[in-house]
Amino acid sequence: MRDNEVLGTEPISKLLLKYSVPAIIGMMVNGLYNIVDRIFIGNIPNVGSLAITGLGITMPIMTIILAFGMLIGIGTATNMSIRLGQGKVEEAKDLVQNAITLALLIGAIITFLGIIFSDKILMSFGASESTLPYAKTYINIILIGSIPNLFAFSLNHIIRADGSPKISASIMVAGCLLNIVLDWIFIFKFNLGIKGAAIATITSQSVTAILGIYYYISGKSNLKIKNIKLKLNKHLIKIIFAIGVSPFFMQIAASMVQVVCNNSLRKYGGDLAIGAMTTVGSISMIFLMPIFGMNQGSQPIIGFNYGAKQFNRAKNAYILSCSAATLLLLIGTIVVQVFPHIMIGLFNKDPKLMEISTKGIRVYLLMMPIVGISITGTNYIQSIGKAKVAMILSLLRQVIILVPALIILPRFFGLNGVWMAQPVADFVSTSIISVIIIKELRSYKVKNEKLNEDLKMKIEIAIEEDSK
């Protein structure tokens, strides 16, 4: 039985496990890159609290680099899949080569501009005289590695589109494990501190990039590229950017939100408040990464069944994924509310930072149990082909509601207002998305009745023709 037939016939629960587990593993591995860095940096003797604050200040820049990786990687991978489906193999090969050239050019520009203006950028992103040295030390090394960073991220998507998801996942896992080992060696064995963490990151990304390039030049790839040509094709760049621009702007928006948040934290809570948010964000990532992986796994199931007009199966896929997400986030909330010190202690044990982080995390993640509804709901709307509505809904939680909340609430509640902004955004966005989802699911009753009427009519016509 072909995969597309399986999507329409196998039990939804079995399909969700089959498609979601690999995606969840991939998301967790990807998330570990950042989380492990923060754990090691936060535990640097004597300076860990300031170092993790410096790292938090660099996050908007890291997000911007990721945005360009998505622009190239997702744009290329999607167009590759389409061209391969159309049998246009040569054009698919040209897309890979254009992606490599774009990664080289954009990576070089990011490195050049980033290092020249690093002081001004970091100060505007929330750095102080105390935290600037740590932020600058870390980000300048990361910026030097912009090209391998873009290579690693882009090729990961491209190799998956080339029909080798297992190889893509294996390369990711290898890079992550290498990063963990090198973090420990460079930070604690060589006493390089935050500089060691940055060197570990770009080294592991470079190895990931080399493995990705080797996949193509070794002849093991499905698309055989003998000689990589660096000449750009205007038409191919245009179609890459046309697809990649949506996730690109989503990440740019996320970066700007991080800037607003960092400046509010520094204004109302000082340097350590930024370090506390870095810790809190890392802990929330541990619980949210599986949900994003579940979304990736449920997308083809929902999309296929909705397209096949099997609305109840699409609905059940959403309900099951939403229920699993809610249960996981409920467990996460209980752990965070009851044992915050244990979770925060993984990243840093500085008493002052622990105090700020403990108070902050209990407020910041207060609405986490209902977040699964909005995250899986947005994914559902996207999976049934309503991309524009899905984009607006995804921006609700992290931009449209959150930014005004970050600006307004601290004026009345100080640092607590910064922590309150996220649960307020979570509650409002979930309420709006719930209404849209309920309306969408209720419409299936009418659609199913119409389908039954059409089927009944076809049967009656067929019977009449047979009787003649």
From TrEMBL:
| A UniProt-annotated Pfam family | MatE
The UniProt keyword set, sorted, is: Antibiotic resistance, Cell membrane, Membrane, Transmembrane, Transmembrane helix, Transport
Q: Which InterPro entries match?
A: MATE_fam, MATE_MepA-like, MATE_MepA_subfamily, MdtK-like
- Superkingdom as given in the UniProt entry: Bacteria
Coiled-coil stretches noted in the UniProt entry, renumbered to this chain: none
Q: Which family does it belong to?
A: Belongs to the multi antimicrobial extrusion (MATE) (TC 2.A.66.1) family. MepA subfamily.
Q: What is this protein called?
A: Multidrug export protein MepA
- Report the source organism: Romboutsia faecis
